[in-house]
Design a protein that fits this description.
Two copies of one chain form a homodimer. The first copy, chain A, is of the alpha/beta class and 379 residues long. Chain A is built from 13 helices and 14 strands. Chain A is 40% helix and 16% strand.
């Protein structure tokens, strides 16, 4: 039998067969009436998933491209912008904001910290824009976003949030929490292939747009197109149609149910990891529902371990990024994941560590995960 | 029977079933070894199709996004840049170059003109970059690119060419003609779905990069990633894999054979259109092998005519853009097209015009196309 493959990374994530089926359909024209119906539905569903009454822009780009649209539209060179980072993606946004010539204040917390409002407050005075990370995919930390956004908002800043790996997995109330711009991507908890960036834009953000050069990522150009269901540039139509189906599945499950499922997936994964006697690098709390980051046991060659899992068992996990490279490995559990994906990942980790000669507690992880997840009891 | 659908627009274009099948496969991780093999092959095949020894960058974006990368990387505000336009896309590039603060000299020829070296020469002095359009998809004009590029090169300029709808359909010798940057997209003659932009970058272009703000579209960042087969941002993996298959098909046919096929497709389409007594708006010569643009007969409501073709016959053509909106309709024939697509398009046009009450020569178009194409004779 050809090897079965398991994609357990925090993006790209497994795509449901119903969504893949749409990817394989003949390409349609982006100005034809059929596509316009699906485009309209996709944009409406995105508003629901983002919990915003404002416009949601769909860009053919990765999450970084979508994030750049926020920086390109909001930056006036020399104006103060605050970036709070505690991992790889926060650092990327600081580099991006600097590239656009903002007067960057970079609050660089240790990797793995969860930012608190008090980390921001001393630096908010005069900041036009505050860039926050909701889910720092490199560490597994999900920030308590509501008070962070409130602190930035109170100081009069435009609030931009990287929710690339959290949207659809973790509660995020764009309008209710006063967030001006939420940035996400198609290939994480939204269960679609990579290729589309997502950006919510509040009227305040739109009113604050600056003078930095931009064309493809210009918000108004895309807004004007979307208002007529006529994208200004040829979109990745196959992925838009696929995302529309995936969003329908998410809304059928219900956002609250999806959030609760992710909490239980995270719990199961952490309990399994701990049962093996391994140490978590991501927080051991219910908010950390996106990715479980595990400290590599002493002496483990993480790269070789991950290649072995992939080649021998068909299980794709991912290592650390930046300063955590070689020191951790990560198990993603956002989107199209159920308990059995977690037990598969844990069983593979256990087998791979044993194969690598690491002494761990054997035979405990899967049981601990099953118990923590709490499958529904038979009627 | 559900209606069969025919996509006869100059992008997106019909995608072969072998390529669609790859789109429907499970998503793979962009840093996994399987994907790296396909990514490497795709980049190598792109070099072959672009006929360049230099790097070809693959960006998750539309053709406009890829074009913007050229402008963002090459523009120094205030430096002279020359754009030659004679249609919608040329005008778009002028707007884009202006958005980046270049000292724009816009040689705006009448729509439908083919630019000549003498149109450029008076404006070349001091121009850092010259932006040319190879195939102006809005009019159907394909420029005689070699002497245009030579004139710009002779004046010491960096030469950037929009080959979005010509690459793979019409001869384009990136290195031999001294073109520094060729911009294209996945969804035209390359027979893949929309979502990827393609940019060739010569050492001279790389040495001429300027100070405009950019991150996602920064050439060096993508080059560094590609050198390790490690894209800096999550690419649209499904489309990269699909494009790789499509490029393999193109190279199996052979580029020269593909160019010759497109010449014959264009001939067949033009002879069919003329046999109906209709007037061409695109040139009646073999270079116009990308799209055939037809003047709307007097009194024809082009929008209603195209909707009728689409709804009643399943045939999707497209109208005019910009100043040619309402005045023309266009039949694309790049990529996965054979003679029978042309005869289908012509038969549908004939039927639709008759239904719209236009007096045309009936029963002649398909025969004229068959004759012009010259099918192989039986052995």
């Amino acid at each position: 039998m050809p090897q079965k493959r398991y994609l357990f990374t925090p993006g790209p994530t497994p795509v449901p067969p119903q969504v893949l089926a749409v990817m394989g359909e003949p390409v349609v024209h982006h100005r034809g009436p059929d596509f316009k119906l699906e485009y309209e539905q996709c944009l409406a569903r995105l508003k629901e998933v983002c919990r915003t009454e404002h416009d949601v822009l769909l860009l053919t780009a990765s999450g970084t491209g979508a994030f750049e649209s926020a920086v390109a539209n909001l930056t006036v060179p020399g104006e103060k912008a605050l970036v709070v980072s505690s991992g790889n993606f926060g650092e990327r946004w600081a580099a991006l904001v600097a590239a656009y010539g903002a007067d960057l204040v970079h609050v660089r917390l240790p990797w793995g910290d969860a930012p608190e409002p008090d980390d921001l407050r001393p630096h908010l005075d005069g900041a036009k824009v505050v860039y926050l990370v909701h889910s720092e995919t490199s560490t597994g930390v999900v920030a308590d976003l509501e008070p962070l956004a409130a602190a930035a908002k109170e100081a009069g800043a435009i609030v931009v949030v990287d929710a690339v790996s959290s949207l659809g997995a973790v509660q995020l109330e764009t309008d209710a929490w006063g967030i001006d711009v939420v940035v996400s991507g198609s290939q994480k908890a939204l269960m679609a292939p990579p290729g589309l960036g997502i950006v919510t834009v509040s009227p305040a953000a739109l009113a604050a747009t600056g003078s930095s050069p931009r064309f493809y990522f210009d918000w108004r150009r895309t807004l004007e197109g979307q208002a007529k269901l006529d994208a200004p540039f040829t979109p990745a139509v196959s992925i838009v149609r696929a995302l529309n189906v995936a969003l329908g599945m998410i809304l059928d499950e219900g956002l609250e149910a999806a959030f609760a499922r992710h909490v239980r997936l995270g719990r199961a994964c952490r309990q399994g990891i701990k049962a093996m006697g391994l140490e978590l690098a991501s927080p051991d709390d219910d908010r950390a529902a996106v990715v479980t980051t595990v400290r590599a046991p002493e002496g483990l060659d993480v790269k070789a371990f991950l290649l072995d899992l992939r080649d021998r068992l068909g299980v794709q996990l991912i290592g650390g990024q930046g300063e955590w490279s070689g020191a951790v490995f990560r198990i993603g559990h956002i989107g199209y994941f159920d308990l059995f994906d977690i037990t598969t990942a844990l069983a593979a980790v256990e087998d791979g560590l044993v194969a690598a000669g690491v002494e761990i507690e054997r035979g405990a992880a899967v049981t601990a995960a099953l118990r923590a997840f709490e499958l529904p009891t038979p009627a």
